[in-house]
Amino acid sequence: MLLPEYGLAPFTWGNASGIDREKGIVVIKPSGVPYDQLSPEKMVCVDLEGKVVEGDLNPSSDTPTHIELYKAFPEIGGVAHTHSKHAVAFAQAGRDVPAYGTTHADFAFGGVPCAPALTDDEINREYEKNTGLVIARYFEKKGLDYNAIPAVLVRNHGPFTWGKSPAKASENSAVLEIICEMAINTEILAGGQCQRVGKELLKKHYLRKHGANAYYGQKG
User: What is the pLDDT of residue 38?
Assistant: First the structure.
């Protein structure tokens, strides 16, 4: 319900899920159901093979992608997917989202990557599962820390975000959309002559919020 509240999911677009690691169960939005008709009883429970274990509705068509992300990123507890306008613009352009300033640095320790397009074979054979595998392989290949960069763009598709909970994953979708809009406006105003945020300023802002000695916010 946070996705439409944040302005990220018109109609039935987008989805979110959470996982119970101990039980190996993923709970996800049902496919194609309008947000204003959702309730806890309509959520769908699936195991890590994608088999429905509780619920009367079909799970989101993106369920296999969520499952592969849970398998690849063992510390996450929630995943969200949207087709938000500015993030999709970067995905359709096949571009990473550069870290131009401290707003971005507060969110991610470096640019948000755009994973490669799926091959024709990957599209025609288990498309949604392969989407998750492409993301996981790209993070591994590039040596990216999924905790430090809680988002990815899938080329020609859109963003996936994650976090410790479904609510945090949804919040990360909202922040990603904001920094994508800021990046686009920055490039327009600068005529393409943009300077990325310096390494020390990037490090300072990220670590003061997310580091071992973070001091942003209130204790407890």
Answer: 95
Three-state DSSP class for residue 150:
coil
Query: Which residue among 35, 106, 127, 138 is the active-site one?
Result: 106
CA separation (Å) from 151 to 99, 109, 125, 168? 13, 11, 25, 12
Closest to 73 (Cα-Cα) out of 192, 160, 171: 160
Among the listed residues 20, 47, 145, 216, the single catalytic one is 216
CATH for the 2-210 domain, from 3.40.225.10, 1.10.3720.10, 3.40.1390.30, 3.40.50.11270? 3.40.225.10
pTM score over 0.85: yes
For the question of residue 216 being annotated catalytic, the response is yes
Which of 41-45, 135-139, 192-196 has the weakest average pLDDT?
Answer: 192-196
Going by pLDDT thresholds of 50, 70 and 90, the confidence category of residue 145 is very high
Asked if residue 220 has pLDDT above 80, the reply is no
Nearest CA to 119 among 107, 127, 111, 109? Answer: 127
